[in-house]
Amino acid sequence: MNISTNVKSTWCPGCPNFMILAGVKKALENSGKKQNEMVIVSGIGCHAKIFDYLNLPGLNSLHGRVPPVCFGLKMGNPNLSVLGFSGDGDAYAEGLEHTIHSARYNSNWIYIVHNNQVFSLTTGQPTPTTEIGYKDKTTPLGVKTFPLNPIKLMLASGASFVARVFADIQQVENVIKEALKHKGFCFIEILQPCLIFHPETLKYKNKIYDLQKSGHKKQDFQAAMKKVEEFDYNEIKSDTKIPVGIFYQVQKPIFEEQFPQLQKLGPLGWKGIKR
Ligand SMILES: Cc1ncc(C[n+]2csc(CCOP(=O)(O)OP(=O)(O)O)c2C)c(N)n1
């Protein structure tokens, strides 16, 4: 299966979003799923352009509203594999409440957040994960607030699969493959340096280390909470090592599986039901 499109890319040359796209394609094309068994949803921003480059059904939704659209799709047809794509502005600013409740609901879909620690499409304003001191034309005196740690937030909110990877083809492919096997809400953050507005974060590439290779036990909540503390999104210039991989994975009740009427739906979802 080939899920490429002929749409000309408008990402900046060399943008790590190209790596994310390549990793997503590899994972989905080799998933054994048919094109009409998968649905993609995007927010608004540079990340959202991925919608144009994947030949899959879906919705290019509103800024910050990826989770309710994914959740709605899952309610309409629980047989679909649903993947949502957001930016950090999308997921942690405008749409933060949806992100939290998605973790709590544990509906079986995959949320992929391209975190470049700025609002890139609108030319680099700070988001909730931008480091203290970052300056742009809207914040000439520099950011004064400590960044949010989204991994910690997702763990605290009850997510059953919490991962972070760097925008590297292999890492993205591997984590999506694992997420496709998981039953429940999967939160995947991808560290995606923005070469234009936040190029310092490119150094993350040399600071990451693999949680699974280091013996981290992903079913251990306390161990995950401890690992999360190692990188706080503020020390982007220090040599602090950044753990990547699956922080936490457990089986919890899945929202849609608790409704018998949803279990009866065939491949067409509600569309296949005679009323
Ligand atoms: C409701 C709403 N608010 C604000 C905007 C303006 N807007 C468009 S893209 C964008 C930034 C997106 O940043 P992020 O989600 O981090 O994605 P990135 O561009 O960095 O991939 C904003 C604020 C919008 N389109 N809709």
Report on this model:
With 275 residues, the chain is of the alpha/beta class. It has one domain: Thiamin diphosphate (ThDP)-binding fold, Pyr/PP domains (Rossmann fold). 28% of the residues lie in helices and 17% in strands. The protein is built from 9 helices and 10 strands. It has helices at 17-29, 50-53, 66-76, 88-94, 96-105, 150-156, 169-181, 221-228, 260-263, and strands at 38-42, 58-60, 81-87, 110-115, 118-119, 125-126, 161-166, 186-191, 208-210, 242-249. The strands form 2 sheets. Strands 2-1-3-4-8-7-10-9 form an 8-stranded mixed sheet, sandwiched between helices. The chain has a two-stranded antiparallel sheet with strand order 5-6. Helix 2 links the parallel strand 1 and strand 2 (58-60). Helix 4 packs across helix 5. The longest helix has 13 residues, at 17-29. The two termini are 35 Å apart. The mean pLDDT is 96. Bound molecules: thiamine diphosphate. Thiamine diphosphate is lined by residues 43-47, 63, 87-90, 94, 114, 116, 119-122, 127.
Please bin the fraction of helical residues. Answer: 25-40%
Q: Which second-level CATH architecture applies?
A: 3-Layer(aba) Sandwich
What is the radius of gyration? 18 Å
**Low-confidence spans:** none
Query: Structural class, from secondary structure content?
Result: alpha/beta
Shape: globular
Order of helices and strands: HEHEHEHHEEEHEHEEHEH
